[in-house]
């Protein structure tokens, strides 16, 4: 499963446990919402790993499923955090904090994440998963604007736009479809 890069299982914290020391702090996109932690975070994150495997959402720098970034002890302030929307409990908010403020994959990874969660929405309890990159990323404004546009199209049509309609194309950098 980790053959895409030089990933070592030794750098990953144990699965099935929520360790706040190996997860990013919730950022501005999650402020004022019901942030998932403990078993709630673990349950949604385990599903995320399955969906990301199915849709090929992989971090090519580290050679693993993007969900494993939350377990990577080398990058304790990177990965996804989640919160149930305070105004609409059928909406989950997901905020991605990359390993660096200039991570070149943040655009592709967040769009791939949006497509995986919302393209396989029958597998979770939310009508919509809103995705944003943390404000610390140098291109957060433009990436988040594109994510809002993608979300708006999805809400208007009930369908994800054609894969060629966004800059991420139809495949992750590993070559698997989002």
Automatic annotation (TrEMBL):
Residues 14-160 form the DUF7998 domain. Residues 168-178 have a biased composition (Low complexity). Residues 152-167 have a biased composition (Acidic residues). Residues 1-27, 140-178 are annotated as: Disordered. It comes from the Archaea. Pfam families: DUF7998. Residues 140-151 have a biased composition (Basic and acidic residues). This is DUF7998 domain-containing protein. It comes from Halobacterium hubeiense.
